[in-house]
Model the fold of this input.
Amino acid sequence: MTNTVFTDRYQDGWVSKRLVLPLKNIKEAASLTICGRRHEYPENLTLSFYVNGQLLHEEINPTEKFSITVLLPAMMKGVLEIVASDVFVPQEVGLNEDVRQLSFLLDEVKLTGVADLMEPYHHLFSFTPSKKVYFLDEETWDEVAYALPPDYKVPDEDMLRELKEPGKPRECSSASIKGIVYDKFSGAPAALSYVLLLNERKQLITATAVDEHGHYQFDELSDGNYIVVGRSYQYGEQQIRVALNGDGMVIHIPVLPLQ
Done:
């Protein structure tokens, strides 16, 4: 029998004496639901739920197929621990040659009311964002994400539809680049921003300020490769590479707030 303390979920779904799950960016009380299945062993089983060492709930002898919901408090970071009162070793009870200490089968862990802060943006306009606009330090990003207001809504396709509709801005004429500089969180125009146009060697060609609606435009451009750079004192920098080949292009520039 192994003495290794295993606090994760095995590939086949089993968990042992303790299951440890990290929690973060829970701005309001949220419901965590654990779905699983109980074997005939151990005969008596109590599951205790702890968050940051505080006991929140105990479930005594859960049913064969169970769903347990626990209300979690708001927190920037924390640890959820599910502690089983007993375990069994399949080899010792004659089931098979498995020598692991097991308590129950974990099917799913669901946390409701917590938005995914990054995923909606990854491929929204089919370009690769500059790494300069990302908080590469996970600790810093956790603090920024937790600081957002509880009523923060992740922008979706409908909220940003205006940026993709033809005519807003109008269809480009030949050899021009135009678009909108917008707040990546809210989809609102990023005021007090400006846009630089660089050649492929990153040499400045020209620059322009955006208008009150976030629009910018460069006209009378020859074919070739360019770099469009959105900048603002209130936002991080975003760079987008553009290849002109006889036709104008609409390039929207998302920027992230500095604070």
